[in-house]
């Protein structure tokens, strides 16, 4: 039997069973999900089982191990990545454990493993999808298997890419040529903090017309910065706020940044290019 997150929350006071082979067989207790586990807040319940499904027996261990996954959650590499990880690190406090279905694990793994590799880490053996029950058993299943319709149809498989060079010396004519070879351009102020997100502070300016809405493109830029963290670190080596112009292509909902310009106050060439772009005709 498949359980959606909504049904699982409604069943908190009920009696659910899972296959005996998947019960860890330990005496457990209900504890409040700690504030340090931000990724598992506002998920429909506030108490978790300890030990959890990862075999962590102390809250200190749970916090330490789960913290390493919060960055992956922020990348939105899959619509169900948070649900999947929290069902393991902070399982809902019922009379028994409810595991994520194998199909959910496979879907999250196939989408998020490339992001982990982008950060230099393989998909861990501890999350081997073969350890989870099949869909014929009682387990936590995705709300829908048709992922392309989730998040109002805007979610797409994330892309890890080779870091583009950060250009500091250029002419406005060359910048216009790059604009013509791309289908989006965005100026943004990037501030890097200890928080797992990068704060895009300034108003985003569309340079190249397209069918995407501003909030969609900004969300995709945020995802790109998080997934391609090595590129972002190269852009902000001193962790000081800097203005950049990111230029690239969005194809089938996937964003690829082809050129990065550091926009300094004395950058008359870049300012001139953006002004001329409104009337520029590409060859």
Give a description of the structure.
Residues 1-21 form the signal peptide. Helix content is 30%, strand content 17%. It has 283 residues and is an alpha+beta fold. It folds into two domains: 2-151, Frizzled cysteine-rich domain (Orthogonal Bundle), CATH 1.10.2000.10; 166-277, OB fold (Dihydrolipoamide Acetyltransferase, E2P) (Beta Barrel). The strands form three sheets. Strands 5, 6, 7, 8, 9 and 10 form a six-stranded mixed β-sheet that branches. It has a two-stranded parallel ribbon with strand order 1-4. The protein has a two-stranded antiparallel sheet with strand order 2-3. A hairpin with a 5-residue loop joins strand 6 and strand 7. Helix 6 crosses helix 9 and helix 7 (214-227) crosses helix 8 (229-235). The longest helix is centred in the middle third of the chain and has 17 residues, at 102-118. The radius of gyration is 22 Å and the shape is elongated. The chain starts with a strand and ends in a 6-residue tail after the last helix. Residues 4-25 and 145-154 have low confidence and may be disordered.
